[in-house]
Design a protein that fits this description.
Layout lengths: L15 E9 L8 E5 L4 E6 L8 H6 L11 E3 L5 H4 L2 H6 L5 E5 H31 L11 H8 L2 E4 L5 E4 L2 E7 L7 E9 L2 E7 L22 E5 L10 H18 L3 E4 L5 H14 L8 E4 L1 H12 L21 E3 L3 H6 L7 E4 L10 H7 L6 E4 L8 H6 L4 E4 L2 E4 L3 E4 L9 H13 L3 E5 L3 H15 L3 E2 L6 E5 L5 E4 L17
Parallel strand pairs: 3-4, 4-5, 5-6, 10-11, 11-20, 12-15, 12-16, 13-14, 13-15, 16-19, 20-21
Antiparallel strand pairs: 1-2, 1-22, 2-3, 7-8, 8-9, 9-10, 17-18, 22-23
Helix pairs in contact: 4-5, 4-8, 12-13
Length: about 500
């Protein structure tokens, strides 16, 4: 079969077994997307949206740097939008292959992608009202609900730890990654006769001791591993200390009668925080407070978590992890129920989104940030350019719905609740792969985070790590040096590489 060739990419050369191109989450945190090509197969690993920066909309609207109809398949590490959110656009633009996922991820995608389409449609509707008043041409949404339904019809579900042959010479396996329900690392093996190379995509690596989910499982071996580095510059606070900080914030809020605003990611973080509030109540460490889960998506995700207890931790006796919820938990499914919270005091509001960029969290923010009795509890990563990042960095005024809002509230940042592995956990996860000769490319991190993790890998494991930028490629060779980095003309010459002999 003749090698395939897509727009902007050279054909696979005779000495190459495969080629990997970094198309997103390289030199940046979001927008996960990698193209893995052989002479016969073209596979996209993740197809995520850019989030956070003001340029995100323009980035997401860019044409794909390949012909979608020429892709054979998409492999998703997990359902978070920065890993999956552009798949409906891919389908809209002509992709007709299958989208491979774990079974829990398939259910989460139904929740997350439908919500994403709704937001795109609503945002475009509001933007077009302004454009019409200004005499400008209307925009189209990035994708619509019909595109999501066509995407969901293309999902193929796989269990963890089963080798799947996708095509002649191309196989993959999902390994548990922790992080959120259904999240996986992907081990891809490409073969041509006696030549074989393995590429591992870490996805988002979870914590070693998550409260509910089973821990990450490092893949068995690799020539190249793409390692996330979101928190590559630091370890998280001890979990016990972070839980105590949460307890103190809730006790203080109860004493002064103010509201507690907790922006959460609807999948994973919402369920974790509810678990700890319920646990603290039962231990008598906090009073029983009215807790409102103000996110239809988080409500649906919580129901999904309950159905997939096979993903939960087990005790020595074989029992599944016991999960808790606050005793006075109220679920806000409708806009009317959400609006009612604006008039209440002495309550805890868990609302999406986790970076405060959209969703229902903006309404309680506008009504509460200017109050000195309000506590804002930040429990997750805040990307550059987000409202959440502005609050963490101490901004005394923010804009919400075009209105300037003073910030008198107390802002508490609890880093220990992250669903991402910290620096030492990442080093331990990748150490067995490096010991067996794998080279490392650091992705999903801001430049300073990647640089810090690269320094740690060299100091502790003697490994030199690449810090690829968008557009760069790695050539997987049949003979000689197994991996060769091919810098993009646009990317700065500042990455370091290591050269291992072929195994």
């Amino acid at each position: 079969m003749a090698p395939k060739q897509a727009r902007g990419f050279r054909a696979i050369a005779d000495e190459e077994l495969a080629r990997l191109t970094f198309l997103g989450a390289a030199g940046e945190v979001t927008g996960s997307m990698y193209l893995l090509e052989t002479a016969r197969t073209r596979v996209l690993v993740d197809c995520g949206m850019y989030q956070g920066e003001r340029r995100s909309r323009a980035e997401n609207e860019r044409p794909f740097p390949f012909v979608p109809s020429e892709l054979d398949a998409v492999l998703l590490t997990h359902a978070h939008i920065d890993h999956s959110g552009l798949v409906p656009k891919l389908v809209r633009d002509g992709f007709r292959g299958k989208v491979h996922v774990t079974a829990p991820s398939a259910e989460l995608l139904g929740i997350l992608l439908r919500d994403s389409a709704h937001l795109h449609e609503q945002d475009t509707l509001h933007e077009n009202r302004r454009r019409r008043r200004a005499g400008k041409r209307p925009l189209e949404p990035l994708y619509e609900l019909a595109d999501v339904e066509r995407t969901l019809a293309r999902l193929v579900e796989h269990p963890f730890d089963r080798v799947v042959t996708l095509a002649d010479g191309f196989a993959f396996r999902y390994a548990r990654a922790g992080h959120i329900l259904g999240a996986a690392s992907i081990e891809c093996r490409v073969r041509d006769g006696t030549f074989e190379r393995t590429v591992v995509f870490s996805g988002d690596v979870g914590r070693e001791h998550e409260p509910m989910l089973l821990p990450p499982e490092p893949p068995r071996g690799a020539d190249l591993v793409l390692l996330e580095s979101t928190y590559g510059d630091r370890d998280h606070k001890p979990l016990d200390a972070t839980i105590e900080e949460l307890a103190q914030a809730l006790v203080a809020a109860s004493a002064d009668g103010g509201n507690v605003l907790v922006p959460v990611f609807a999948v994973g973080r919402a369920q974790e925080i509810l678990h700890y509030i319920g646990k603290l109540e039962r231990e008598g460490r906090i009073p029983e407070l009215p807790v409102y889960l103000d996110s239809p998506m988080a409500i649906s995700a919580s129901e999904l978590y309950r159905r997939h207890s096979e993903c939960f931790q087990t005790t020595d006796g074989g029992r599944r992890c016991e999960t808790f919820e606050p005793r006075r938990l109220e679920l806000c499914r409708t806009p009317e129920e959400s609006m009612r919270l604006n008039e209440l005091r002495g309550i805890v509001i868990l609302s999406a989104s986790g970076m405060c960029e959209g969703g229902r969290i903006l309404h309680p923010r506008r009504h509460n940030l200017w109050r000195a009795t309000t506590d804002v509890v930040i429990v997750g990563f805040q990307a550059r350019g987000t409202l959440g990042r502005a609050l963490v960095e101490g901004s005394r005024s923010v804009r919400i719905f075009g209105e300037s809002v003073a910030v008198a509230a107390k802002v508490n940042t609890l880093g220990g609740f992250s669903a991402h592995a910290g620096r030492s956990e990442l080093v331990r996860w990748v150490a067995p792969l490096i010991a067996n000769g794998a080279q490392v490319a650091l992705v999903h991190g801001e430049d300073d985070k990647c640089a810090a993790l690269a320094a740690e890998l060299q100091a502790r494991l003697g490994a030199l790590a690449w810090q690829p930028q968008r557009g760069e490629r790695v050539s997987l060779r049949k003979r000689g040096t197994p991996l060769v980095l091919e810098p993009s003309e646009r990317a700065p010459e500042r990455r370091r590489t290591s050269r291992h002999r072929a195994r």
